[in-house]
Structure formats: structure tokens, C-alpha cells
Amino acid sequence: MGVLVGFGMFALMTTFLTNYIVMQGGMTADFSRLYAPTGLWLMALVAAAAAFGFYASRAGEPLFGKFET
Amino acid sequence: MLLAAFIWLMYLALEPYVRRYSPDMLMSWSRLIGGRFRDPRVGRDILAGLCAGILIALPAVRAAADAAVSPARPSPHPTTPIDHQPRIPSLDTARPVRPAANAEERAGQRHAHHARNSALTRMLVKRTWLAAMIAGLVVAFVAVSQAGTEYLLLNGFSRPRSRRSTWACWSASACSR
């Protein structure tokens, strides 16, 4: 509810999707498991979403700021 | 399809009210469906949602790691019929791949329920913060009555730490056996 009030409906959607991916995605460090590739793809999906969110939230500014020399 | 139709109808019914009284809630969603994928607000909400989703899952992940470290400890989670590993989130538990396939559908259902509860409560009490508190209490009450405190991941906080580190077990497949 805090996410819904503070950040809005889209953030709540992302929260639920991420939570379900992390909790139900069958992630494992044992790559011999049958579901290991699925877990890896889901982890990659979450990482890609985070990277895109960071890129978009910078609004065209340099991603890590400007370094003064 | 029927569920999606219901959620769509609910969205159509509640959207004008929410847009009038709490337009901030729909701002990034409106920009997203308007095609402005690179809008900074959309990016901010993606990051906020990712952080919140992972933070909510952390106690369960820790509980799963503790259960994997010491399998002799009785686990409150049910076991799968395949190899009697705890059916708990993530890590090296035996889980079918199927739950991941409908994760977005179930997440959509949950999201729709929360948004609907919040909007309907907001109609009744006319205060956004009060509506959020009431809707949160209702959701917590329903969750606890259906699945006990395990659903709210409260048990994850009370588990004693094991001697072996969580990461050491997470990265070693033998811990889950």
C-alpha cells in the first residue's frame, strides 16, 4: 500500500511482478537443475529492468554524473 | 481471458475516480501506455517497484536459506512430492518451472485486488493515507486468515541464524540435500 500511495500504480505492478519472479521463479545456483536456465533468464530480466529504470530515470543526463578534472 | 476482462472492466470503472482524486497514482502508467517509455518518472517507478519487490521477498529468501542449511529442522513449509524438499521460494529447493510461467498473471491479480481495495476505500473515507491504512489492514487480515503468518513472511525474521553463512549454502548445491 505504501508503494501504491507513494509511487503509484505502475510501481505497484512492478513490485508484484518482481516479488513473484524472485519468490516463484525457481532460481538456483545449481546449474544442473532442470529449471536453472529459467531462473537465470528471470534474473536477467530483473537486472535488465533495473538497468533500464536507471537509464530512463537519468533523463538523458550522464548515467554516473560528470567528473570534474 | 475472463479474468483479464474483469480486471479491464474494473480498471475502466475506477480509473476516472482515481484520476480525479489521486492523479499521481496514474501518472507514470499513463505516460507508459502513451508510448513515453523513456520518461524519467517511468524509470523511477520501475526502480522503486524493483526495490520494494525484492525487499518484500528478502525474509522468505533468508528462511529458504536457513531451511537449506539445516534440513533437520522442521520447516513450516509444505514439501513437494518429488524429493521432499521444502516448497519455499528460490534457492536450491525443488520447484517446478510452472509457477514462473504464470507469475505475471498472479502478480496481476494481486495488483488488481490491492488497487481496487485502495480505490474503493478511498471513496469511503476521503483520505488517501487513511484509505491506504485500512486497505492494508484488510489485505493483511485476509492474508493471515487464509495462510497464517507465514504468508506475511513474519516467520523469516524469527529464525535463528545458522553457523554456516547463507551465501555459502546458496552457492553450494550439497546444502539442499
Describe the structure.
- The complex is a heterodimer of chains A (69) and B (177).
- Chain A has helices at residues 2-7, 9-24, 36-57.
- Chain A is mainly alpha-helical and 69 residues long.
- Chain A has one domain.
- The longest helix of chain A has 22 residues, at 36-57.
- Chain A is flat.
- The termini of chain A are far apart.
- With 177 residues, chain B is mainly alpha-helical.
- At the A-B interface, α1, α2 and α3 of A face α2, α3, α5 and α6 of B.
- Give the overall form of chain B: globular
Kindly state the percentage of residues in helix of chain A: 55-70%
Rounded mean pLDDT score of chain B: 69
Number of strands of chain B: 0
State the domain count of chain B.
Answer: 1
Q: Largest sheet of chain B at a glance? A: none
Structural class label of chain B: mainly alpha
Distance between the termini of chain B: 40 Å
Q: Count of DSSP E strands of chain A?
A: 0
Show the helix and strand layout.
The complex is a heterodimer of chains A (69) and B (177).
Chain A: H1 2-7, H2 9-24, H3 36-57
Chain B: H1 2-21, H2 23-33, H3 40-69, H4 98-101, H5 103-125, H6 128-147, H7 155-158, H8 166-170
Helix pairs in contact in B: 1-2, 1-5, 5-6
Keywords, separated by commas or semicolons:
heterodimer, A: 69 residues, 3 helices, B: 177 residues, mainly alpha, 66% helix, 0% strand, globular
Tell me briefly what this model is.
The complex is a heterodimer of chains A (69) and B (177). Chain A is mainly alpha-helical.
